[in-house]
Each structure stands twice: as C-alpha cells, then as structure tokens.
Design goal:
The radius of gyration is 22 Å and the shape is elongated. It has a 3-stranded antiparallel sheet with strand order 1-2-3. It has 2 domains: 1-46, no CATH class; 48-83. It is an alpha+beta fold and 83 residues long. The chain has helices at 3-12, 63-81; strands spanning 17-21, 27-35, 40-44. Keywords: Membrane, Transmembrane, Transmembrane helix. The chain crosses the membrane at residues 59-82.
Length: 83
C-alpha cells in the first residue's frame, strides 16, 4: 500500500479511536489528533501517565531548577569581576 493510501485513511479517521501497528510490531492506541504527510499524532487513550511533565513526578520543578538558576546568576555576576 502506498503512503497516500495511509495518509487518506488516517485523515478520514481523524478524531476517532484507532490502533496502529508498526512494522516492528509495536502497537499504538489513541485518538488521531493531527495528520501530516509523514506523521500521525495520537492522543493516548486512558488516564495520563506523566503527571507534571518529564520525570518530575507531579511535584513541580523541584530543587534542580533552583541550583540551575543560581548557577546561571553566579556566572553572570562573576563575569563582571574578571572582565
């Protein structure tokens, strides 16, 4: 089957729940949110798994952002002393 055939099929089923099987055997289930010529964007079915973003576990930015902002500020201030 051609790429145009799959594009048309995905475009016709936009907004519906689908199950997509890839060549390597993986199965993706979700609602088709958007379709481009080379990608299909799915909204996953079920409850969201990542509460609060990538690796934060739902607790916000945490301690690491404070260290990063402090480091950036110290680099900016130290540049005035060694100019």
């Amino acid at each position: 089957m051609s790429v145009g055939h799959y594009y048309g099929m995905c475009h016709r089923h936009m907004g519906r729940a689908v199950e997509i099987r890839t060549h390597d055997g993986r199965i993706h289930r979700g609602i088709i949110h958007r379709v481009s010529r080379d990608r299909v964007f799915l909204q996953p079915l079920g409850r969201p798994r990542n509460l609060g973003g990538f690796g934060y576990g739902g607790w916000g930015w945490g301690f690491g952002a404070g260290i990063a902002l402090g480091f950036i500020a110290s680099i900016a201030v130290l540049s005035f002393f060694f100019w």
